[in-house]
Amino acid sequence: MGYYLGVDIGSVNAKLALIDEESRVVQFDTEKVTSSPRAAVSSLIARLGEKLDLKAIIAAGVSGSGRAVIPKELGWAEYSSSLAIGCGLLHLCPDVKTIIRIEGQSTMVIDLEDGLKKPWKVASNHFCAVGTGGFLEQQAYRIGVSMEDFASLARKCRVLHHRK
Questions:
Q1: How many domains does the chain have?
Q2: Which of 12, 62, 93, 117 is the residue whose CA sits 20 to 30 A from 28?
């Protein structure tokens, strides 16, 4: 069986997603960027290599502000963060209408009118978001849930009012 690898390298975390040929998520892993983005990605790949023969990876792609740490010679596809996030979430939650991404140094809101069929409206803010991701991590800690559970709670929320 072959696998597809996606790595998102941000300023605070590097994330890895591995899916199989049937589009099932096989592994998801996160590593804090402490010493360098390259070290974080190396840790992710090393952990993946403990569970899987890396030769089984058919294709790999990278996104995020730190994507330049992946050498061009490896031939990984490069994707914008909004495209990677949007496609991944639409795969898992095909009815999603709005995606809010909050990271360590930026926020992004993606409005989806009709999934992948119509153009998206993407708004980002790189000036006022610093610390927002850390704040959300603190809130998850305070209520005693993991960030994964915190995200699951957010996915269950429904908007109670209509936009004009």
A1: 2
A2: 117
Structure tokens given for 48: 């993946």
In three-state form (DSSP H/G/I as H, E/B as E, the rest C), the secondary structure along 1-68 is CCEEEEEEECCCEEEEEEEECCCCEEEEEEEECCCCHHHHHHHHHHHHHHHCCHHHEEEEEEECCCHH
- 142-155 pLDDT, tens digit per residue, is 889 888 888 788 77
Bridge partners (DSSP) listed for residue 103: none
* Cβ count near 13 (within 10 Å): 19
Let me know: does 6 contact 84? Beta carbons within 8 Å. yes
Say which amino acid occupies 5.
L
Encode pLDDT of 112-138 as tens digits: 877 777 777 887 776 655 666 777 788
Please name the residues in contact with 132: beta carbons below 8 A apart, sequence gap of 6 or more.
102, 103, 104, 107
Full domain range(s) for residue 68: 3-78
22 in Cβ contact with 2 (< 8 Å) = no
Residue 42 falls inside a structural domain: yes
